[in-house]
Amino acid sequence: MDKYLKILEPAMKRWLSEHNSPEEAKTRWEKTMELDEKWIKEEGNLGGKKNPMANNMLEAYAFFAFYESVDRTFGKEDLRMMIDAAMGKSIRMLSHFNLNTLLKHKWIVGIIYRYLENYQKKAKRFRGREWGNTWEIRINPDRHEKGIGFVYDTCPLNDFARKHGYIDFLPNLCAIDQMTCSAAHGKLIRHKTLAEGDGECNYWILGSEEPEAIADTGSK
After folding, report:
1. What pLDDT, on the 0 to 100 scale, is given for residue 1?
2. Total-model pTM
3. CB 131 within 8 A of CB 123
4. Which residue, of 84, 130, 147, 177, has the greatest Cβ tally within 10 A?
């Protein structure tokens, strides 16, 4: 069993037991495991451990497999409660990091940008090969002078969701970015997403106390 499905297993089984008979819950869980394994084999793992972004795809397979196994009756609030049950402790630990303070240090911002640049170089080299359709990224194209800015021009989650007819559910997964950023006292300003057909996902991450963060409305 993939590690993400294993992490989510208790919360998923709890949801299944609350909404199905014991036999039906067992059948739907087996279908979830089968789909997750099938997609990892057929769609790929984007290079696995060598690709720092690959875990996002593996996590998405687990959620999409569950979504399909319950006949697509699993909604946004169900997902939020499941994430809180399965990963809430880890997400809340991000509160020890305060982006209002951290992103004021140029050396920290520099480290983050170097990390993104390293990914960008590797993605250009391995995309279409070992890393499949991994994310294509542009770094700070809007030249933000504070915070962290980058744009994804492609996203394998978006490709997968459109291929299999799950595009209605994808924005719920995209919202996890908002949750994790908020947990670290940050704000993700994102007004375009591939999931909603905008042609790109534009990220601008700021501390939550920055004027632009406070004034922002409509981020996805």
Report:
1. 80
2. 0.93
3. yes
4. 147
For the record, the structure tokens of 217 come out as 């409305």
pLDDT single digits (tens) 123-174: 999 999 999 999 999 999 999 999 999 999 999 999 999 999 999 999 999 9
Can you give the residue ranges of every domain in the chain?
3-215
